# Entry
Amino acid sequence: MDNANNIAKRKQGRPPKSPEEQAAIRNRIIDVAKELFLNDGFEQVSVRKIAAKVGCTPRTLYYYFENKRSLLHFIWVDIFAQLADYADEHIPSNLSPKEIIKASLQAYVSYWLEHPDRFRVIFSIEDLNSTPDQDQDASRIVLESRFFQRLFTAVETCCQQNMFTEDNHELVGHMLMCSVQGIVNNVLTIKQIPWSPVDQLLNLQLDGLLSGLAQH
# Structure
């Protein structure tokens, strides 16, 4: 009889966790993974290391996330939300569309330079195991963030109002982003060069680009 009861208990197992408990575990895993990625680098952090710090087994972690790479989805969402909040604090209200563009790009550069660890998590991960779906998902997170929505809306307004000679707002937005991304990347990764002050570099670049777009 006792043996039958033990078998029944093993079959029953632990009671299922409530949605709130599952959400708490999921958020704990995300928080720990972000901390480890920022401090140690994505490549140096294993699923086993994340699970150990969370206090669960790797099997439990895999129950919530397909792999380490899938955790980046949630970390990207969090970091780009912080970028948007930072921009909100640094972009004055009642600016013209062209002024919004310049202020947004200035805030973008400042944010990454103030948080180089977050820059590495977002832009310095070389994971050859990422899938096309994961790459598309990462692209969606970036372009649908509040920061990029505001920037590209301002660019589109300038194109629609014929402030720029180019009417393809996506092309203009991508060009501007590639330009400022170069400054951030060079300043953070090529430290052997004594770069000119970033604010001077950025103002010269943006004034030149925006003036060039407005030329007729």
Summary: The first helix runs from residue 2 to 12. Confidence is low (pLDDT under 50) at residues 6-13. The chain is about 75% helix and 0% strand.
